[in-house]
Amino acid sequence: MIRKFAALLILAGIAALFMELLFTYQPDPELNTTARYYADRTAADIGAANIVTAIVVTYRGLDTLGEVTVLFLAAAIVGLVLAQGRRKTAKERAVTPAGELLATGSLFLAPLIMLLGVYVFVNGHLTPGGGFQGGAIIASGMLLMLLADPLKHFSHRLIAMVEALSGMIYVAIGLLGIALAGGFLDSHILPNGELGALFSAGAIPLIYALIGLKVGAEFSAILADLSGTEEL
Amino acid sequence: MAHLAMATGFILILIGFYGALTNRNILRMIVAFTVADSGVNLVLVAVGYMRGRTAPILDNTVPAAEAAARIIDPVPQALVLTAIVIGVGVTALMLAYSYKLYEKKRTLDITKHTELKW
Amino acid sequence: MVSAIVIIAAALAAEFMLGLFNERWRAAAYGVTLFALGFMAFISAEWVWAFAVYDAQPAEIFTAGVQPPFAINLRMGFPEAALTLLINLTGLFSALYLRRALLEKGRAAMAVLLVFVMAQNGIVLTRDIFNLFVFFELAVIATGGLMLLSEDERAVAAGFKYLIVSQVISAFLLIGIIFSYHATGVLNFDLMRPEHFAAAQGGAIAFFLMFIAVVAELKPFPANGWALDIYESAHPAFAGLFSVASAAATLYAVDKLLVLGGPAWLPVATGIGVVTFIAANLLALPQRNDRRLLGYSSVAQIGLILAVLGQRDILGDHYFFVAGGLIAAHAAAKAGLYWLSGLVASRDIIGWSTLRGHPVLIFAFVSFIALLTGLPPFPGFYAKWELAVALAGSGRYILLALILIGALIEAGYLFRWLGYALKRDKPSEEISCDPSAVTAIIAALAAGWAFAYLWGDLSAHGNILHAVPLLFALSFLLLDWLPAWVKNTVAIVGMVGYFILNYTDYDPLRLIFAVIILIGGPVILLASYDAHGRRIGFYPSAMLMYAGLTQLIGATDFFSFFVAWELLTVGSYFLILRGKHSEPHALSYIIFSLGGAFLILTGFALAATVSPLPMFEALQHLTGETAGWVFLLLAVGFMTKTAAIGLHIWLPGAHAEAETDVSPMVSGILLKAGLYGLMVLMLAMGKQRFYGIDIVHVMLWVGALSALLGNLMAIFEEDAKRLLAYSSIGQMGYALFGLALMNHLGWVMALMFVINHYIYKSMLFLSAGGVAKRTGTRLMYKMGGLITLMPLSFIAVLIGIIAVSGVPPLSGFGGRWIFYNAILSAEHRLPMVITFFSGPIAFLYLFRLIHTVFLGQLKDENRRIKEAPFWVILPQMLYVGLLMAFAIVPGLALRRVDTYLNQFFPEGGLNWEGITITSQFGYWSPVSIMIIVCAIFGSLFAWLMFINRRAQKVKQFNIVFAAERPYRPETTHFAWNFFAPYRKALGFLVQPFVTRFWETIADILHTAGDIGRRLYTGNPQTYALHFLAFVVIVYFFWTGG
After folding, report:
1. Phi, psi dihedral angles at C917 (to 5 degrees)
2. Does residue A222 contact residue A168 with C-beta atoms inside 8 Å?
3. CA-nearest residue of chain C to A170?
4. Phi, psi (deg, nearest 5) at residue C25
């Protein structure tokens, strides 16, 4: 009771803070310095049609690298945490089998979902989407497979390999940026190409593909670990 | 429009925090945090919306030359992308930890896991 | 030089590469981890070298080939290089220590460690606020993950709580960032300006949210519950890394934000910092768990550094020196202490006594505690000095007072811990000597001393470690393996040699003190030849004390004086701690001494800002209210050392429980340091008024009361050494009285006193110690009749008490004669009377001393004892000779002083012609007195010898009891409760009011801490609530104020 009252009181204070922010907020009439630069220069410098992608992958590439590391970290720690528990083999675990609709449907849907995911990250520089979104979609395909067949065994080895390789190549591309172009994670190591074409925007498609694979692998690892904890 | 989205975001944050502060079940706390995260992301995206403008993607309707006059601010969108991913990572982590805590004490009540104090 | 981005890239490459390794190749993975950390440290070291030696310029590292603010950039400047080096080295040694845990958990854990270190580097290097957020998140998640390396089962819960609260914080950080972006239009630190925030509506709140979220990462009070659990349950190697690395990085991030926000935010940082410093230290008082204690201490230190960050405007050029010094001290000490805690099996602070028997580890422990408390020669000391001077110069007195109070509380619990480790019984569990752990600890120790030397070189006041006396004292650490007599000889030769080389530099006043310290000290050291074995720890401590004393009288500026003061305090603390039962007394000694030292520091800081002149001249030039304050602060500080009444409760225990040859040193020589300080102060400043009250008049009263009460308390003591200790309080009161008279004769008396007191107090303590050694007890009612068995001790005590009491012919009489002359030429009557009365009272306890110990009946258990050891007797006989010589020719020492004092007190001097001394009231002829007294004594003695032949011998047990059986045997001994009638009459004057007062204060602090710590209930929702409440409270303070 006291806790609820205290929480309400303090949140009222926070709400006051938020209200002040809300009521003094005026949207800008024009784009500010940074946004204007991106709006004007992206097409010419980076060659990506999706400006957000250009920002995420190239201009603020270091943030993305950090973000990828966050996921890597989360997957690693989830693995560490759950590895300490008892690992039941397929024979020991008794789980309810999935229904027939789910099992059959997933056979049909899972590849389509994977395909969608690949499409999303391959076209990240042209349409809304990108590596993270695509990777998430791929992982949802994996989730579907896990739900359909809870005892399905994913090769942790394969997932780890994919993850590690894509990560290392990503860092290597970044370092190549220093050597061959203007700085770390500069996407100009590959030619810009024509705006709107599939093979354009320098190294961005390559990077996003790597990110897509890495994110997909990491999410799948997390999901597999978490599903291993299911008990009846 | 921006104000509406922002207000919704703030309300979600407050609801999320309230839930996180008062629920004793760990899983409910985590869900409440997810709600709060959504609220934060909503606020992030709401900043930078400009009335009458469109998404920052260059194609036939928004050629490169007119971009500066036609698109909204792309930076908050880029930031939100990162924020969402980080939020997911932390949520996954918290779920794994809650399983571990459950395994040890067979209870999901947060008040039972307070041996470290004072 | 390698670009700084490679630090990040190398870490990332290593992390991802670890994924390629087979689960079984753990050793190889571990090797990669170590190599990556070493490489990162190497890059940082390269940059530090470039900045320090080649004066390089800060480098900007761009990414994406685009200029900021349109892309993220990093900067590698001198502070960044130094901080990343600190972080990477700590990471490397932590990884070494974590070897077993990492190999057990596998490559995922190693990757997490790498990410943690990389993230801290990123926080330091980045110039983009959103990038800062990403690195913070990485650090937080990695922290949660590294909790799994701990063997403590509660670590998982701690990690979970940490994640929960960090979620709330990151929500606020994100909101702050996005609205700041809206207000300024950029995300780059260098391009955001305070004006942008002021101009935009809601800009101030945006900055506030960002600022408060980053400050919350520093775990300020009360929003720090989540971190304490981490400190308590993590693997000790990681706890050390966490304390050092995340503190250093986050503090730098706050610094970057403060530059962004403008000067209006500095007071907020200071306020939060000071509150955290004091509250965390207070809450640490009742802690028994060693790691949790270190956690509270970490929070407190970080709070102090945050407060320093908020003082950026007044620190100017010294900013990085002060903040860096505190960070360096905190880093070496905390890492070292956490790593040490990994070796100790018990989690209670009492269990640290297992470290005894491992001299290197004990030395490390002592060094770490000294680093934390800011004792010289460590960087915290230099930082404290500069900070105090800057604060006093800007008039921020309250802040200075608060910081010093917090520092005193911190010293309290740290030294209590030290006492436990050095004095308590060893528990049964031995320490686990893990070689990687020991390597890490030694690295931290070396770093601490390296920082001490480095900060000394950087300081404007000269390197403490360059002073010869200090180096001489420290060399005894290396010589400690030699037998005691060798070290004793080296010590004696060293001190006498130093005196011979330097005595021409001293003016007559200082020469007296120099003789007492540098010649008198070796005389007492003669008694130390009696010791067997190696006496590890005695010589470094004793020489440290003497080094401090020597440097004290040679100091000409405030800084050197203060350094010397602290050195002698530390040395004497360790010396006193050696006594068998002296643990609580040593603790109260160090707390009172440090309190006095802080008062002196404040006084010096106030005076030093007025003028940069050497000490004496600077004090002379002070005027007005400042002068009054400075005089008061310094006077009270010095009086703590002389144990003036009200500040005296540490002395009886400390001097009584100390070893036989230590008590004369601390009572005979160390107390004089306070008198020396008072002399310098009063010579420089004369009489001072403080808000209309004449301070010197108050000191007169204090001196008189000390004399009276000290002597009164002495007469009721049963323990011989406690009696002598209380006697010292009385005698010091007497000397203070003489000084406060502020006339020529008063000062001559005080100086005569200084010499006399040294001689007879040392002598009395040596004999009491010698007797105690032979009889096995210090209680006087267990002795009696020892005159026949210990005649030499008897003679020494006899001569001693004749000298103290002022009976002719010895020098005490001369002192009393001068005293009467002094009174007659001064204005104050009542204090005079009180002091006058303390004389006969002193005689009471002196009589008790000799009567109950040497005269009376010999007890059965003492029939076979021998005279005290030769080496203990030798100095006593020397003193007897000195007393006789001084009685006949007092001019030997006093003549030059008398002339020297003429420049300060022109009138009222003594006339030293021939063998008679004349004053304006009368004359004193020592030689004639001696002849007369000897004649009287001789004739009486001869007559006694003649009569004695017809005396009838009575056997000892020729006493009859009248049917009552005494249940407590001591009640029938004539010596017990000797002065019972006086106790009935005057006992009310010696109620332990002062002791109760100080004990009540300590109790209040402890209770406050105990109540306060209940704030951390263990429930993470409470901790999240704390954080939100913290935000709301600071917000309301900020908008209201």
Report:
1. -110, 125
2. no
3. C13
4. -90, 50
Residue C153 Cα, gap to closest chain A Cα (Å): 12
| Nearest 10 degrees: Cα torsion A182, A185, A186, A191 | 130
What does the pLDDT read at residue A232? 47
CA-nearest of C340, C392, C346, C384 to C361 is C340
C-alpha B75: how far from chain center: 17
pLDDT of residue C661: 86
Distance CA(C384)–CA(C389), nearest Å, equals 9
The answer to whether residue C802 sits within a structural domain is yes
The angle formed by the CA atoms of residues C995, C996 and C1001, to the nearest 5 degrees, is 100
Interface of B with C (CB under 8 A): 13, 17, 20-22, 29, 33, 36-37, 40, 43-44, 47-48, 75-76, 79, 82-83, 86, 89-90, 93-94, 97-98, 100-101, 104, 110-111, 113-118
The complex scores an ipTM of 0.95
Q: Decide if C1016 touches B, using CB distance below 8 A.
A: yes
Q: Which of C905, C939, C973 is the last residue of a domain?
A: C939
C443 and C489 fall within a common domain: no
Please give the residue range of the domain that contains residue C910: 467-939
Determine the residue of chain C that is closest to B48 in CA distance: C182
Quick one: pLDDT at residue C460?
79
Q: Closest by alpha carbon to B43, among B3, B15, B82, B72?
A: B3
Residues in chain A with pLDDT values less than 50:
232
Contact residues for C646 (Cβ-Cβ < 8 A; gap 6+): C702, C994
Query: pLDDT (tens digit, 9 = 90+) per residue, B35-58?
Result: 999 999 999 999 888 888 888 888
User: Which two structure tokens, joined as six digits, stand for C308?
Assistant: 């320093």
Distance CA B112, CA B108 (A): 8
In this structure, which amino acid lies at residue C507? D
Q: Is residue C960 part of a domain?
A: no
Length of chain C: 1041
Nearest-CB residue to C108 (from A60, A80, A165) = A80
Tell me which of C903, C921, C939 is where a domain ends: C939
Comparing alpha-carbon positions, the chain C residue that sits nearest to A78 is C145
CATH 1.10.287.3510 fits B2-50+71-112, yes or no: yes
CA distance C248 to C306: 11
Q: Strand, helix or coil at C596?
A: helix
Q: Are residues C813 and C854 in the same domain?
A: yes
Q: What angle do CA C354, C357, C362 make, to 5 degrees?
A: 75
Backbone φ/ψ region at C319: left (φ over 0), alpha (ψ -120 to 50), beta: alpha
Looking from the CA of C272 toward its CB, the CA atoms found within 13 Å total: 32
> Which of C158, C1025, C1028 lies nearest to residue B116, judging by beta carbons?
C158
Inside any domain, residue C839:
yes
Residue B91, amino acid = T
Q: Do C360 and C499 share a structural domain? A: no
- Note the pLDDT of residue C204: 85
Q: Please, are residues C586 and C676 in contact by the beta-carbon 8 Å criterion? A: no
CA atoms within 13 A on the CB side of C242: 33
Q: Which residues of B touch A47 (CB under 8 A)?
A: none
Residues C724 and C605 in one domain: yes
Q: Which pLDDT band, with edges at 50, 70 and 90, does C151 fall under?
A: confident
C701 Cβ contact list (under 8 Å, min separation 6): C831
Query: Could you tell me the residue ranges of all domains in chain B?
Result: 2-50+71-112
pLDDT in tens, C373-403: 999 889 999 999 999 989 988 888 899 999 9
Q: What is the mean pLDDT of residues C503-531?
A: 87
Nearest chain A residue (CA) to B52? A29
C-chain CB neighbours of B86 within 8 Å are 134, 137, 170
Residue partners of B28: CB distance under 8 A and separation at least 6: B19
DSSP state for residue C857 in the 8-state scheme: P
- Specify burial of residue C969 (Cβ count, 10 A radius: 0-12, 13-18, 19+): exposed
